[in-house]
């Protein structure tokens, strides 16, 4: 059995960077698949021996960061409804923003299963943001660095029971 993972969160937290890391070169094949919308990118994810579908909410880039416009909310809800598990990412270097709190509320109400990822966690500049993330009420944040590939064993540990 396999599962689907939606990567959600406000613009610029590193969702697409992680998507690309999980999907790797298989993305080229994914683009040819039917039913893939422009705003939700879907790929075949790989992490250790796990194989799963990854959904990137790719259409958020033009949304503003200090509010949660209807489009961002609708796109996120669509991804959440499609997925067995959501990886909710925040930028640990910035800390928790009001927009992050709105995402957290959507996820608490709607998602089947949530993993909280505190991204950009390489180095001590992220420590304060990681601590803030506990207040989101979504469990223990995973320290990850999508860009540097750090924290992938912890992400594996969180996903493995779902496989
Ligand atoms: P998205 O809008 O959530 O899809 O974010 P992107 O994946 O486009 O990344 C936004 C910016 O954050 C880019 O400049 C990335 O290079 C940067 N970024 C992503 N992951 C990390 C990370 O782990 N550490 C740091 N320092 N920067 C990152
Ligand atoms: Mg993106």
TrEMBL record:
Gene name of the encoded protein: der
Domain EngA-type G per the UniProt entry, residue ranges: 3-163
Record's protein name: GTPase Der
Subunit structure: Associates with the 50S ribosomal subunit.
Family: Belongs to the TRAFAC class TrmE-Era-EngA-EngB-Septin-like GTPase superfamily. EngA (Der) GTPase family.
Shown residues within the full chain: 1 to 163 of 487
Binding site for GTP 1: 9-16, 56-60, 119-122
Function: GTPase that plays an essential role in the late steps of ribosome biogenesis.
